[in-house]
Design a protein that fits this description.
Shape: globular
Structural class: alpha+beta
Radius of gyration: 16 Å
Order of helices and strands: HEEEEHHEEEEE
Length: about 180
């Protein structure tokens, strides 16, 4: 996807001309041109990056999450759960601990993941709500909503229930969902 875990310059690099949402969509479409097994579910624009959710066409399961640097247009893996908990596409999908059984049922259900997320939000962001749950291999990712608007995102480990807040996005700006 791009050089370096955090892309060249890191996710908070400023200066230069910010790419448009349509340019971010083109970057994703160009990437998908080489991956006929994947589709994009949504692209979200935050102040520090564009977030992209890729899913498998045949299963509908979330494949992985990526970010786009809003100034360089570099597409790279999202840090955190996407890299550490993703049992099929992430760094820990066999590199160090052997190959996990990606067809194994996660012990944390979607409903439990939403409850763990809400418990975290209640202590972190009073008035916030855990919203739609997206399943990935080994974890779930949820939108955090406050006052009817997307506030941020977090992930819940599908085996332990551990919550990991996505602090690297910055304020939410825009979203586009795809079929």
């Amino acid at each position: 996807m791009g050089p370096g875990m955090m892309g060249p310059g890191g996710p908070y690099r400023s200066g230069g001309q910010r790419i448009t949402f349509d340019e971010a969509v083109n970057i994703v479409e160009n990437y998908l041109g080489t991956r006929t097994d994947l589709k994009v579910n949504e692209i979200m624009e935050f102040s520090y990056n564009f977030y992209v959710e890729f899913a498998e066409k045949d299963t509908g399961i979330g494949a992985f999450e990526a970010l786009i640097d809003p100034f360089t247009g570099d597409l790279y893996p999202e840090p955190g759960p996407n890299m550490m908990w993703n049992t099929k596409y992430g760094m820990m999908s066999g590199m160090m601990w052997g190959r996990p059984d990606v067809s194994a049922t996660m012990t944390v259900t979607e409903d439990q993941a939403k409850k763990y997320a809400q418990d975290f939000i209640d202590s972190y962001l009073p008035g916030g709500q855990a919203d739609e749950v997206e399943r990935f291999y080994g974890y779930y990712t949820l939108h955090v909503v406050k006052d009817g608007q997307i506030y941020g995102m977090l992930s819940v480990n599908g085996y332990t229930g551990q919550v990991w807040y996505h602090f690297w996005h910055g304020p939410f700006l825009n979203i586009r969902e795809f079929d």
